[in-house]
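User: I've been trying to design a sequence by hand for this structure and keep getting stuck. Would you show me what you'd pick, starting by listing the structure so we're on the same page?

Assistant: Good idea, let's start from the same input. This is the structure you sent:
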């Protein structure tokens, strides 16, 4: 950095003083009058040449700028190295802390199951609540790659698996609402008939996951990757499948959508344009993608907003409950098993892309009503169907 600053200053000086490389000495001539011999009136002039060294730019560079720039450069490099070293140490410490938390969680759950007889106790007991609290707590402290381990454990032990029909909580040992699974790597994970009500799955990678028959009521699926996921006969009532804004996470949350009016026309319209650009990139020949990708990056830079769109490519939705599911701006053109009845029960807008043969609701709600108004109307229907 210091070297860059020095080069910039050097360029400015050359622009202002193009003669900066001129001679480094100045010559002066001194004339002395004196008498040849004592008493004689004849006077002879004698010239004496004196050279004097001037202070130049290069003197300043050698004496001040170079040592100063070198010192600053050394300090900057040292600071950069120390910062990277601290980051590496913090990453190692964080990894060790997460591994330790996972091991502690496994030990605690083993104790609750074996010694505290969690399975035989009535639902809602203190032991159940303790297990729920510990599971929620450990998930909050883990990164995306490690979140799948506790989730896989409680599911494999049958602690969050619905014991009866999809969408009902009867028979589920642990009521793990609001699970922190944002940005979790859940690729190809089997969670069939799992109870994941109100789960935070923002930006989660669910590619190829089996969620058939699961209860995802009011789940936050903004920006999730559901490519090839099996959601057949799952309950997505009230689920939020809007785009996810990394810079402003609360912008399109269900809480904000319900409590006050959203500038949906402008915001969602802007997001729709961006989504269409990204879709066209995937369809174009690789050699013609460069220009469009550059435009997308420039557009994102100008908007100062990083948005992730929910990916529903080849998602299986056969028999899925979409009552009140927020599908505004969703691209459903490649989903499997979608019916007109499901669309009629969902929430959308004129930027929701549907498969051929499927039309927006005949009521015209998508075109006439705001997203927040549709949400309020659907809440009663969701609760009635769930209970």
């Amino acid at each position: 950095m210091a070297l860059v600053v020095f080069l910039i200053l050097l360029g400015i000086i050359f622009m202002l003083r193009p003669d900066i490389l001129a001679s480094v000495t100045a010559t002066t001539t001194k004339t002395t009058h004196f008498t040849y011999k004592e008493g004689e009136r004849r006077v002879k002039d004698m010239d004496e040449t004196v050279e004097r060294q001037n202070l130049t730019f290069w003197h300043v560079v050698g004496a001040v700028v170079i040592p100063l720039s070198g010192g600053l450069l050394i300090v900057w490099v040292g600071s950069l190295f120390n910062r990277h070293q601290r980051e590496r140490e913090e990453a190692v410490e964080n990894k060790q802390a997460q591994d330790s938390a996972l091991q502690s969680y496994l030990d605690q759950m083993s104790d609750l199951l074996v010694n505290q007889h969690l399975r035989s106790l009535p639902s809602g007991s203190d032991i159940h609540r303790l297990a729920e609290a510990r599971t929620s707590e450990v998930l909050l402290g883990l990164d995306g790659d490690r979140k799948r381990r506790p989730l896989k454990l409680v599911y494999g032990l049958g602690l969050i698996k619905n014991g009866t029909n999809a969408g009902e909580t009867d028979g589920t040992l642990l009521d793990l609402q609001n699970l922190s699974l944002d940005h979790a790597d859940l690729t190809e994970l089997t969670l069939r008939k799992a109870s994941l009500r109100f789960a935070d799955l923002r930006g989660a990678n669910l590619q190829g996951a089996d969620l058939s028959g699961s209860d995802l009521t009011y789940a936050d699926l903004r920006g999730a990757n559901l490519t090839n996921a099996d959601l057949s006969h799952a309950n997505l009532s009230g689920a939020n499948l809007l785009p996810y804004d990394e810079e402003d996470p609360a912008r399109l949350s269900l809480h904000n959508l319900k409590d006050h009016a959203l500038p949906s026309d402008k915001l969602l319209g802007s997001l729709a344009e961006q989504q269409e650009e990204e879709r066209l990139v995937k369809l174009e020949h690789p050699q013609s993608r460069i220009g469009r990708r550059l435009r997308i990056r420039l557009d994102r830079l100008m908007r100062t907003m990083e948005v992730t769109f929910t990916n529903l490519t080849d998602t299986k939705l056969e028999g899925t409950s979409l009552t009140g599911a927020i599908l505004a701006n969703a691209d459903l053109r490649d989903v499997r098993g979608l019916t007109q009845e499901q669309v009629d029960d969902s929430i959308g807008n004129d930027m929701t892309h549907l498969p051929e043969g499927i039309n927006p609701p005949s009521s015209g709600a998508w075109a006439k009503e705001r997203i927040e108004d549709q949400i309020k109307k659907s809440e009663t229907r969701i609760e009635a169907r769930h209970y």
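That's my pick for every position. To get oriented when you compare it with your attempt: The longest strand covers residues 25-35. Residues 57-114 form the longest helix (58 residues).
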